[in-house]
């Protein structure tokens, strides 16, 4: 159960609820501050379809997603797989028609600040990047997608965002990462020189979004690396996933970030001593699944990352036991799972992370995955991922 303070616990018990409904922090920095990530699966097969779905107030999936957010009440939230449109109208509609409307018995939640930007998914590269003999398919975009902006990202915040301090890394080239794990075949490199000249590292984008929390600026480092599957023996997606995760590990490390440049051509990493929270669906489990070369452990074992407080839930334990299959072969504790996949082949995995710097004090963490019979159990059908959060004390 998410716990914010003794006051919050009392309020929850008094209302006979299992999730807090009132945030106990404000824009003046009252602690704790809840950071969260949620792959909401609000992606659609055609451009503009999400906006159409959100124009009304009765889309069943969006209502469930909004209720989960209203129950957990993050202060700073990254949404993955929220289709991007340049004018931000889909984000407008989600906020006005869903978050600003009471879902079930929950209180509305408002975010004064937000950030969204273009991503690489569905942006044509002009090359046959997936090796299928064609150069105009979803696998030939800079990131896999049927149209530009599919599987986009959206940051919502109750705290001010330093717009002038935002850094994006959408166009950073994969080959410019030293010792990049570029895919190989028995005949040589999978990508030829002309492809490497344009091939971007980020399958969506990497964002450094500075959040002003009271007197302190916390850098919200957001990403959604590609799944390490849907490829061949060259392991192009597994290797890309590894290096997308490595990007943040290098970005926060003083002597490893000189090679990095952002979309404004500013070079260098985060800077020494700056607090951060790394967030997103990283598509990598520390022990199970198909990720390459311990990809997520580049962050979990990083000396500047506080990975000791692991978000967990009772619902994940129950689901893994009931489903069996691949879950029975997993090495990772099922309590830490954040996603629910086919139990015959993949099973449930820990893929979603909110990882603070060691300079920040983590108070509590959790995954919204109610067990059978617990309030909100029916909501998780909205996505194959679960909202994952951590509380930070300033």
List the SSEs and their pairings.
Blueprint lengths: L5 H9 L18 E10 L6 H6 L5 H13 L3 E7 L6 H11 L13 E3 L37 E5 L9 E2 L15 E2 L2 E2 L3 H4 L9 E8 L2 E8 L12 H16 L24 E6 L15 H4 L13 H10 L28 E5 L4 E7 L20 E6 L1
Strand order of the largest sheet: 3-4-2-1-13-12
Mean residue pLDDT: 93
CATH class label = Alpha Beta
| CATH architecture label name | 4-Layer Sandwich
Total number of beta strands: 13
* Number of structural domains: 1
**Strand content range:** 15-25%
Structural class: alpha+beta
Unreliable segments of 5+ consecutive residues: 1-25
Main sheet specs: 6 strands, mixed
What is the CA-atom radius of gyration, in angstroms? Answer: 20 Å
Number of continuous helical runs:
8
According to CATH, the fold-level topology is Deoxyribonuclease I, Chain A
What is the H/E string? HEHHEHEEEEEHEEHEHHEEE
Relative helix content: 10-25%
Question: CATH homologous superfamily, by name?
Answer: Endonuclease/exonuclease/phosphatase
Shape: globular
The end-to-end distance, rounded to whole angstroms, is 21 Å
């Amino acid at each position: 159960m998410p716990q914010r303070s003794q006051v919050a616990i009392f309020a929850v018990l008094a209302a006979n609820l299992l999730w807090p409904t009132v945030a106990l922090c404000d824009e003046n920095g009252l602690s704790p501050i809840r950071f969260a990530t949620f792959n909401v699966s609000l992606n659609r097969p055609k451009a503009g379809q999400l906006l159409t779905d959100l124009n009304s107030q009765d889309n069943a999936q969006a209502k469930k997603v909004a209720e989960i957010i209203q129950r957990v009440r993050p202060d700073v939230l990254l949404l993955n797989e929220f289709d991007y449109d340049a004018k931000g109208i889909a984000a407008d509609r989600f906020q006005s028609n869903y978050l600003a409307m009471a879902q079930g018995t929950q209180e509305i939640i408002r975010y004064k600040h937000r950030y969204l930007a273009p991503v690489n998914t569905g942006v044509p590269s002009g090359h046959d990047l997936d090796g299928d003999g064609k150069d105009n398919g979803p696998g030939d975009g800079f990131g896999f997608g049927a149209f530009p902006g599919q599987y986009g990202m959206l940051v919502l915040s109750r705290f001010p965002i330093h717009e002038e301090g935002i850094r994006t890394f959408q166009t950073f080239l994969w080959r410019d990462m030293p010792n990049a794990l570029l895919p190989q075949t028995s005949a040589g490199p999978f990508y030829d020189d002309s492809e490497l000249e344009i091939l971007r590292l980020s399958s969506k984008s990497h964002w450094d979004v500075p959040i002003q929390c009271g007197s302190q600026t916390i850098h919200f480092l957001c990403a959604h690396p590609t799944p390490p599957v849907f490829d061949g023996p060259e392991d192009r997606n597994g290797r890309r996933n590894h290096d997308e995760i490595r990007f943040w590990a290098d970005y926060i490390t003083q002597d490893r970030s000189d090679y990095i440049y952002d979309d404004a051509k500013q070079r260098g990493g985060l800077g020494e001593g700056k607090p951060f929270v790394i967030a997103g669906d990283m598509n990598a489990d520390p022990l199970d699944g198909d990720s390459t070369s311990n990809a997520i452990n580049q962050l979990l074992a990083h000396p500047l990352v506080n990975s000791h407080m692991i978000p967990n839930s009772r619902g994940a334990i129950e689901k893994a036991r009931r489903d069996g299959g691949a879950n029975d072969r997993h090495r990772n504790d099922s309590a830490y799972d954040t996603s629910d996949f086919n139990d015959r082949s993949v099973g449930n995995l820990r893929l979603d992370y909110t990882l603070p710097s060691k300079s920040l004090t983590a108070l509590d963490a959790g995954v919204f995955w109610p067990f059978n019979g617990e309030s909100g159990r029916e909501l998780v059908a909205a996505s194959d991922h679960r909202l994952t959060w951590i509380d930070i004390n300033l």
